[in-house]
TrEMBL record:
Residues 5-156 form the HD-Zip IV C-terminal domain. InterPro entries: HD-Zip_IV (IPR042160), HD-Zip_IV_C (IPR057993). This is Homeobox-leucine zipper protein HDG11-like. It comes from the Eukaryota.
């Protein structure tokens, strides 16, 4: 997720504001991260949830404008907030369990799923179609580069 994180932060200052445990495992939590300045007009928070259990692990994050969080805290309607989470999940593929009695044939293999949600706005402008295709190409490049970084980090770049 480092590449996604790099894109979200755009070399901005990042400060962890708080951490809320979501269970009994200390690493299972929701972290509130403040990024500023996100751009000239907005300050941005990132909500990031991490969890690990016997099924696997996941990391999900979503940017949310500070103004939006503030409005919710003072009683605004949280159901109107647009949340576009992105993240990864790593889980067992079942191979190890099917070969548990024969450790010589047991394999440590996992399934990695990566998910991105990105809002693309368009209109009936003829240039809009071209802009959307450029965004799709950009997303494809980000996704490909992110998967390569994950494979390198897990030492499975030959797959």
């Amino acid at each position: 997720m480092a590449l996604i994180w790099d894109i979200l932060t755009s070399e901005n200052k990042v400060i962890e504001l708080g951490r809320v445990l979501t269970g009994t495992v200390p690493r299972n939590d929701i972290t509130i991260i403040h990024m500023f300045p996100y751009n000239m007009h907005k300050e941005m928070l990132v909500l990031e949830e991490t969890s690990t259990d016997e099924m696997g692990a996941f990391l999900v994050n979503t940017p949310v404008e500070l103004q939006t969080i503030t409005s919710i805290i003072i009683g605004g309607d949280a159901t109107k907030v647009l949340i576009l989470p992105s993240g990864i999940i790593i889980t067992h593929d079942g191979q190890l369990y099917s070969n548990r009695d024969n450790t010589a044939n047991a394999q440590n293999s996992s399934v990695l799923a990566v998910s991105f949600q990105i809002l693309i706005c368009g209109n009936n402008n003829p240039n809009s179609k071209q802009q959307q295709m450029e965004v799709v190409a950009s997303v494809h490049a980000v996704l490909g580069a992110t998967i390569l970084k994950i494979k390198e980090a897990l030492s499975c770049s030959n797959l």
